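note to self — DONT lose this again. spent like an hour looking for the file last time. sequence + predicted structure for the chain T wanted, 318 res
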Amino acid sequence: MLREAAPHLVHVHNLFPNFGRSWVRRWPGPLVATLHNFRPLCAGATLYRDGAPCTSCPAGDRWAGLRHGCYRDSRLATLPLAWAGRHGLAGDPLVARADRLVLLSDMCRDTYVRAGVAPRRAALIPNFVPDGPWSLKPGKGWVFVGRLSPEKGIQELLRLWPADEPLDVIGDGPLSAPCRAEAPAGVRFLGALPHSEVRALLPKHAGLVFPSLCAEGAPLVYLEALAAGLPVLALRGSAVSQAVDAQNTGRVIGWDEPLSAVLRDSSAAFPGLRLHCRDIYEQHYSESVWSSRMTELYRELTRHQNGPAQEISGGVAK
């Protein structure tokens, strides 16, 4: 099919779980692959296990994921992934063959470079989200948006959350029941909402709370918050906390800091960051910025072919 279509460039986003990879070694043209998570390094894709970050497999213990059943809590389900990853990144046909690997955050890029990806092949091009409703008018209360699962840190957050601080929890997942049981009085569970409703609700809050316990790839909720002019309170350790620190889009704290005082101080400081958050969105995470970066990558890889470079426009290679 690719030979018939004769594209100037092939860009692969996700071949997991059951799409073939052997063809990439035979494809003669430029090849780009976006790595949305840590699956090539970790059967669970999160570099997280048993309540803590885990780098056993990329550190060389290739069968750790199988011993712990890291994919779907099943050794049987993990076996094909462990076998495929037994030689590390060098044994992954797509990662080994791609001319460029697109990484979505500084933390992702650093992780893959430490695991053996040559820096020249690692292109940092964050995702984008469409622009949406936003307001400089300060909102009230806090909001969490995400899956209610162990790696997201929501249960640990609720155990520390002050009863007099309002928090809206948007999302669902396996920890829904225990989270509801442990939540203090000021917490509302709104369940899983349509994307449009989430975007409309974000700017009505004082800030987004991001308590993830794992590194994360590049959560879109951070981009959505900035598009809505919403500062972020992040717990240290994730790609989002690293971005908040680097871009001054909120505050990063540790789990041992007194949450009541942090929330009180952040409520006072965050209104002054709303315009800055919008600026960061427009500079780094808008559709036009993403399109420009991706187009330049495509131009670079197709520059020496006959004709394709001038046929690339708006981020789309014909």
